[in-house]
């Protein structure tokens, strides 16, 4: 059991970290005023954070008052926190994330061109860990089920864990993350307009539909995963079979596969889907069939959002993923349909402001910061 002194130290350190995360660079004097901690306590706690490379000095504070200006302290943006591994249809992307929520792409490994895959991954990890002190590996759950059969997520998880232990003779925290939650976390950290809302829904539309929920001031998850509205039934008479084993699920009608299948008919290769989707969107303003399908698609998306809004009393819903690329009228149409059936009058619907290629990677980076500090404060 922790002593009272240890608990108080952890609490006070957490206050300092939260202030710097929320407000950016601050002086010791400002930290002391905001936390009501004695100046000596702030000095002692910040020195420990400096020693662990968590804090850095940036500049002198800018004030109009006379006297000596204090040094501004900020979270060390060069401090590496995690390795993020993202799975795509034809490649794996390796990013290193940092304490300010940013990430840097380190390596892309192509599935098809890779021979001796385990050796290639081993060399990538060796390069990354030789130059970055990282204690967390985050695996981003793929947005579809089209990974190579010999490279399932579980196999990749075991491979990464084995390689890391063989090289460094120790365990590392590895987590598989839900894309709906990650997209929500990214949007909330990067979009200031959501700071006024206590109940937010995020709808991530790719081949599947992932959802993230922020209710009563906290991200809702169970065993690391969100509660997916993608498998709520919106067509009770449907014969379309979902991967979950049910029929008529929302994601069968709101996922991009519905739009692509309705327009192109023939089976499209996974690696071609995004390009085909963009072409279809570009045709919507000049071709009646594409325009009509896009309006039906907006309706399909709106039906699921209505269920979310009326079930949970949401203040705002953000729609992202592939639909990031649609023209504003599609989102406006979704919003009007939702408002026509919503219990609440002031619900806001908007598209994501973050590209689908980066949103989950940003979310993982911000999530890694919380995991990092959870571990740090328990030391």
Fold and architecture overview:
By secondary structure, this protein is of the alpha/beta class. The protein folds into three domains: 4-75, Arc Repressor Mutant, subunit A; 80-177, Nucleotidyltransferase, domain 5; 192-355, Nucleotidyltransferase, domain 5 (2-Layer Sandwich). It has helices at residues 4-23, 28-35, 39-51, 117-131, 153-168, 179-190, 251-254, 256-264, 273-283, 288-312, 328-341, 359-378, and strands at residues 26-27, 55-60, 71-75, 80-87, 91-98, 103-110, 136-140, 173-177, 200-205, 209-215, 218-219, 316-321, 348-351. It has a five-stranded mixed beta sheet with strand order 6-5-4-7-8. A five-stranded mixed beta sheet has the order 11-10-9-12-13, sandwiched between helices. Helix 2 packs across helix 3 (39-51), helix 6 (179-190) packs across helix 12 and helix 8 (256-264) runs antiparallel to helix 10 (288-312).
Chain-averaged pLDDT: 85
| Domain tally | 3
* Inertia-based shape: globular
The fraction of residues assigned to DSSP E strands is 15-25%
Please tally the helical runs, counting DSSP H or I stretches of 4 or more residues. 12
Tell me the span between the first and last alpha carbons. 13 Å
Look at the helices and sheets and give the structural class. Answer: alpha/beta
Uncertain stretches: 145-149
Strand neighbour order, sheet with most strands = 6-5-4-7-8
Series of secondary-structure elements, N-terminal to C-terminal: HEHHEEEEEHEHEHEEEHHHHEHEH
Question: CATH fold name of the largest domain, please?
Answer: Nucleotidyltransferase, domain 5
Percentage of residues assigned to helices? 40-55%
> Would you state the CATH class of the largest domain?
Alpha Beta
Architecture of the largest domain in CATH? Answer: 2-Layer Sandwich
Which homologous superfamily in CATH is the superfamily of the largest domain? Answer: ATPase, nucleotide binding domain
| Strand segment count | 13
Integer-rounded radius of gyration? 23 Å
Q: Main beta sheet: strand number and arrangement?
A: 5 strands, mixed
């Amino acid at each position: 059991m922790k002593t009272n002194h240890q608990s108080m130290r952890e609490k006070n350190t957490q206050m300092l970290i939260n202030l710097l995360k929320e407000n950016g660079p601050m002086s010791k004097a400002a930290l002391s005023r905001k936390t009501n901690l004695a100046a000596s306590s702030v000095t002692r706690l910040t020195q420990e954070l400096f020693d662990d490379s968590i804090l850095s000095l940036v500049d002198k504070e800018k004030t109009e008052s006379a006297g000596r200006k204090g040094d501004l302290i900020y979270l060390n943006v060069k401090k590496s926190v995690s390795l993020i591994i993202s799975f795509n249809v034809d490649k794996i992307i390796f990013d290193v994330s940092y304490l300010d929520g940013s990430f840097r792409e380190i390596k892309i490994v192509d599935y098809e061109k890779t021979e001796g895959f385990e050796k290639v991954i081993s060399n990538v990890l060796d390069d990354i860990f030789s130059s970055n002190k990282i204690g967390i590996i985050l695996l981003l759950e793929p947005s579809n089920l089209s990974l190579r059969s010999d490279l399932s997520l579980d196999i990749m998880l075991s491979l990464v864990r084995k390689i890391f232990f063989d090289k460094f003779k120790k365990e590392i925290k590895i987590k598989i993350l839900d894309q709906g939650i990650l997209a929500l976390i990214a949007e909330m950290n990067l979009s200031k307009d959501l700071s006024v809302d206590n109940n937010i829904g995020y709808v991530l539309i790719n081949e599947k539909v992932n959802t993230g929920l922020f209710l009563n001031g906290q991200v809702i998850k169970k065993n690391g995963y969100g509660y997916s509205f993608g498998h709520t039934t919106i067509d009770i008479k449907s014969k379309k079979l979902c991967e979950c084993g049910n029929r008529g699920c929302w994601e069968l009608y709101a996922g991009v596969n519905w739009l692509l299948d309705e327009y192109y008919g023939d089976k499209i290769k996974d690696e071609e889907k995004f390009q085909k989707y963009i072409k279809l969107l570009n045709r919507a303003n000049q071709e009646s069939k594409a325009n009509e399908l896009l309006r039906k698609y907006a309706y399909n998306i709106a039906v699921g959002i209505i269920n979310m809004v009326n079930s949970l009393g949401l203040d705002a819903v953000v729609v992202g993923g592939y639909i990031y690329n649609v023209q504003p009228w599609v989102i406006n149409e979704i919003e009007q349909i939702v408002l026509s059936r919503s219990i609440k009058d002031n619900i806001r619907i908007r598209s994501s402001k973050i590209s689908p290629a980066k949103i989950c990677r940003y979310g993982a980076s911000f999530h890694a910061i919380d995991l990092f500090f959870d571990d740090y404060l328990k030391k």
